[in-house]
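sorry for the late reply, my laptop died twice this morning and i had to redo everyting from scratch. anyway the thing you sent over, i finally got around to it. pasting the sequence first so we're on the same page, its 218 residues, then the predicted structure underneath. double check i copied it right bc i was rushing
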Amino acid sequence: VSEERKAALIASLGVRPGTRVILQPARLTSWKGQGTVIAATGLLEREGRLGDSLVVLAGDAQGRDAYRAQLESEIRAAGLEGKVVLPGHVDDIPAALALSHLAVVASVEPEAFGRVATEAQAMGCPVVATDIGAPPETVAAVPAVSADEVTGWLVPPGDAAALAAAMGEALSLVPEARAALGARARARVLAHFSLDAMRRQTLGVYDRLLGTALAAGL
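ok and here's the structure:
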């Protein structure tokens, strides 16, 4: 992702220099958990832990205007105007993840796979995800792995306090620790969730069933 692409997106979002972006890329629908993200952000702000961060709920309402209005009302009620924004559809998600300090997957219903958790890690962006559906397989988090193997955080769905705690921990990482976590996350995704890895694993199933050697041909 070029610096020009990141600069263009920063300009379109109106992000001030030095601001840390917390990104939730998801269409605006209640099961994606935007309300939980707003509540967690409110907790961080009241605790003085949000700092200069800007929470970007990037996604199209796809006709769910009443839900968007509800989110805007929740933002106002929490005193988070200017701290949480709803920019609508964002075309360049790789650039958005590249410039973000943290990505959030707050779904309250299981994702079949949920690309954002892996896409964020592929860009070296730390991710907090809910502990349902696929993220427990795609995000390495304690206690399933040791602290030096962590690639993100997993929290219970709909739990604003747990989400706030994980977001706060991510925001408190020193640059060296954040960079190391991002490098581990990218390496894990490339090893296990790339297109080539998917092909090898799929052909491996055929090989086990049919006695062929298709995976070896890749």
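The longest strand covers residues 21-25.
thats about all i looked at so far, will dig more tmrw
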